[in-house]
Design brief:
globular; alpha+beta
Length: about 160
């Protein structure tokens, strides 16, 4: 439930790259091959411990999806989410009045808030969630009853390196 709450918070305000640097061991270096293999397993276990398993991810997002649409602010609703290719796509509908909407200001404020929340390291569950999607997350915003996207915010774990 804690992760579900963090996912919901991620909607409200919205590094690890797997890299196999090990080389193929040469036949005459059997001893170093064993050491490299142990080191690779250790690194792999650390990476796995910093991510959520697939069943947990599916469970949390399925539960969240059942709660949609979800109001995330006075003028914004989360209406859909999809997972694929190591990325999460969120679809929001803005229900406010179009004449009161300053696209550049809202986009900047939303982008900054989402990045701050996405890159927050205080909650280990949020860090695990971020690391579980190396291709990041996409937030897509639309006006109510319009199919044209207003703007989108794409965040990847490496964005947190430039916070």
């Amino acid at each position: 439930m804690k992760i579900l709450k963090m996912v919901a918070l991620l909607f409200l305000s919205m590094m690890l790259f797997g890299c196999d640097n090990s080389k193929q061991a040469e036949p005459n270096k059997a001893g170093s091959e064993a050491v490299q293999s142990d080191a690779s397993k250790s690194d792999s276990n650390k990476a796995d411990n910093n991510k959520l398993d697939d069943d947990t991810i599916q469970s949390y997002f399925s539960e969240l999806k059942r709660q949609l649409p979800m109001r995330v602010s006075s003028t914004t609703q989360l209406v859909d989410l999809t997972i694929g290719n190591n990325v999460v796509d969120y679809k929001y509908v803005v229900t406010g009045k179009k004449k009161n909407f300053s696209l550049s200001k809202v986009q900047k404020m939303t982008s900054d808030n989402l990045k701050n929340k996405y890159c927050e390291n205080r909650d280990p569950d949020l860090v695990k969630l971020r690391n579980s999607f190396p291709n990041g997350i996409n937030h897509h915003y639309y006006f109510k009853d319009e199919d044209k996207e207003l703007f989108s915010v794409h965040l990847v774990p490496s964005d947190c390196d430039t916070k």
